[in-house]
Structures are given as structure tokens and as C-alpha cells.
Amino acid sequence: MYEPIRTPSVHSPADEADFPHRSREEELDIQLAGHLAALLAVTDELGLGPAGDRIAAQVARLRGAPPARHAALTDAAPASLHRRAHALAGRALVVAASRADTTAAILSAQRMDAHTEALASPAAEQLVGAH
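RESULT FIELD:
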């Protein structure tokens, strides 16, 4: 009564060998390394050498290679840079917590605290190289 289907269905799953797959942990590592690398760029622009070195070590651990360090300046106000760094550290904290990376989570929380403190200081607009 019915003719058998002779072609594969468009709804069948694709062959697993078609493209490489990454695990959830690998995806989170990539995302965390990206957030930390962005935080590193802002941290370097603020002139925060020791903090930048700690962030760079975490990026290197996640990527398996040392990150490129930020050399260009954007001429942004220090307060604006601290706000941007605070937001980036917050994003890194969320990803670090979801992948249970205690070291990166602690570092991110410390950076958030440092940037919050820098923004709360009376001379927040004149900040250069604080923390």
C-alpha cells in the first residue's frame, strides 16, 4: 500500500564526523578566556601591572598559551575604564562559577571589588594606575 522511503529523512541527525564537536566545558573555557582577555586589555590600559599579570596567567592556563598584552590606549576616562573592567570581571565571574573554576572566580571577584573601590574614591575621574 505504501512505498518504502528510499532517501534519508531531512530530520535525521547529521553524521557525527561532519564537524568537530566541543564539550560544554570546552565552550565555557573559551568563553571565560575571552572575558578574561578583555579584562586584561582594560587592566593593562589602566596601568595595573600586577593585576594584569594575574589575569594573564589565568588566560594562559585556559588557552594553553600566553595572551597578547594590550599596548594601545583609547584615551578613555579612568572612571569609564573602571566601569568597563568591573562589568567584564562580572561576566568572567558568572562563567567561572558555572564551570566551577574557583581560581578564576576568586580573581574575578577581587577585580570587581578593586574596580568598585576605585570608582567609590573621591578622585575617581583622576584615577591612573590604581590597584
